[in-house]
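Design review, sub-item: ligand-bound model
Attendees: FS, YL, KQ
YL presented the inputs for the uridine-diphosphate-N-acetylglucosamine complex:
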Amino acid sequence: MKKKVLIVCGTRPEAIKMAPVINGLKGQKSGFNTIVCVTAQHRHMLDQVLSIFRISPDYDLNIMKENQDLFDITEKSLKGLKGVLETVRPDVILVQGDTTTAFIAGLAAFYLKIPIGHVEAGLRTYNKQSPFPEEMNRHLLSVLADYHFAPTEWSRSNLLKEGIPEDRVWVTGNTVIDALMQVARGQRPAVRKRFFVESFKRKYNLELTTQNSKLILVTGHRRENFGEGFENICNALRRIAEQRKDVVIVYPVHLNPNVQRPVKRILGRVENVRLIEPLGYEEFVFLMSRSFLILTDSGGIQEEAPSLGKPVLVMRSTTERPEGIRAGVVKLVGTKERDIVDGTFELLEDSKAYMKMSGSANPYGDGKASEKIARILFSVLQ
Ligand code: UD1
Ligand code: UDP
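KQ shared the predicted structure:
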């Protein structure tokens, strides 16, 4: 009898990181019955990922509304998931990371006594306000979950310190590296590269040369940065662009209105800043590979960029991913205007500092995390 695995995800990064798991489980010869439910906490940004990885959800709760708050997501996904879990009655559910979708799916499964597997378990800042609410979401998930798939030894050690039994924690690597490698492999042929270069030129009037000494890629969306943090980030970007006319800042702007408003107000008319829509994953990976450096507050990008040998300045005061910092390829610059500008200028002007940060490092896995998760699940569900 095939074991039923229900995978729940809601946002762009969960879909990227779960895509290799879903496709891996579906392809397993041993045979799982793999069912996918999306809350659609994100709509457009989720659909972009599902279409790239050719995933058609079996259930779609379609909960997103404009400028939703945490109560909206919690209430709608909890109620919707009750119905799905009662209908499907899976042997296990799998959730990923630290979003409200992931936490609520874990809670719903616990209420129905369904075992929970947590992918990307054990990341911590131990500061419950930062990132908010993700730090609390992942703590709560660790308490709820039965199977913990830690991406690194460090995340495993956090779980063990917190009393999670050793035989319930596996170090698998991060599935984001599986997704990244899959997409990057598809971009190797010269004809694919030409396609992306031409499409960036046509759509965004952006010249992507192989030596991209002048392209700074930016993303940002963290809730704890709304308001002052975002104003500072945008003011810093404006100063960098105004002082370095030779640089192009490319910023695919997250669709959250709390991000869109300050970004468009402060950066909308700066000549060498291109504000563009969120990119499909393939385009985004190509842009990362052609950029000089990346400024971000994203979690996933901190994991991907080291594999591509791109220095990352993280516009946050904490990170739950210290491995990139230890490897010397990621640096925390915080959200003060001055620190962001200084950190960027150092990399633009000091080639030694740049070289030190641009060696490629791979602390987050070898691209086989989803295979390992499938094998482990198969053995624990027997
Ligand atoms: C969510 C997650 C965060 C994750 C991030 C990835 C929570 C609490 N937050 O934050 O952990 O890092 O996703 O991006 O789980 N919107 C659209 N279309 C979309 C997506 C978003 O219009 O496709 C707009 C909507 O107005 C929506 C708003 O963005 O209400 C906020 O979305 P939400 O998921 O609540 O927050 P994020 O900041 O995206
Ligand atoms: N990403 C993307 N298009 C974009 C910006 C980011 O596909 O325009 C990808 C990026 O490569 C990474 C993920 O989205 O895998 C990060 O998502 P986000 O920053 O929204 O969330 P976080 O990682 O902070 O949870």
